[in-house]
Design goal:
The protein has 2 domains: 3-64; 68-178. 46% of the residues lie in helices and 17% in strands. The chain has helices at 3-16, 20-28, 35-46, 50-64, 67-74, 82-93, 166-178; strands at residues 100-103, 108-111, 115-123, 126-131, 143-144, 154-158. Helix 2 (20-28) packs across helix 4 and helix 3 (35-46) crosses helix 4 (50-64).
Length: 180
């Protein structure tokens, strides 16, 4: 997700009165077949600006894809990485019940109040774990963000299950704590 879109999502509750998840719930009850129907509905019924209405409807379409199917698609031909993905999710879910796990087409976004981690099967033998750890120097397993750009400040490349050790779990927890 690019920085501008993430900023828009973060500002959505303040600017529109509801979170993206709340808007998704409203749109699910309507069953619009055309993008413009959803946009016009939000503008007319809720006085949402065109930019926010367009974003809400666009992201709601993405959500309609089954989350499980999105993850299965990401790991097709990369099945050896699934145990690492599962361990990362188990670790993250242990941090608290205030986490939203959002599969996208090529990665899984992990959000508290803001995105703090991103899990992406980068190759058939590697998962890239992106983290938001502002002001933390690159050291140990922490590399620069690489292909994540501004979505994350750091990246950890994982090729073996045992690499998800206390250090990696500690960095995940630190990113979670900073995402308030």
């Amino acid at each position: 997700m690019d920085k501008a879109l993430q900023t828009m999502i973060n500002n959505m509750p303040e600017k529109t009165g509801k979170s993206l998840e709340a808007w998704h719930s409203i749109l699910k009850t309507k069953g619009f077949t055309k993008h413009s129907e959803g946009v016009n509905f939000l503008k007319k019924e809720y006085q949402v600006t065109h930019g926010f209405a367009n974003t809400i409807v666009s992201l709601s379409k993405e959500e309609k894809q089954d989350a499980g199917e999105l993850v299965r698609s990401q790991y097709q031909g990369k099945e050896a990485l699934i145990p690492m993905y599962d361990l990362l999710l188990k670790t993250i879910k242990g941090f608290g019940d205030d986490i939203t796990i959002t599969p996208k087409k090529t990665s899984v976004s992990i959000v508290r109040k803001r995105q703090f981690a991103l899990i992406k099967p980068a190759t058939k033998s590697r998962i890239d774990l992106g983290l938001k750890l502002k002001d933390i120097p690159i050291k140990g397993c922490l590399e620069n963000s690489g292909p994540f750009g501004t979505m994350c400040t750091h990246r950890i490349q994982l090729t073996e299950l045992d690499q998800i050790d206390e250090e990696v779990k500690g960095w995940l927890l630190e990113a979670y704590k900073r995402s308030v």
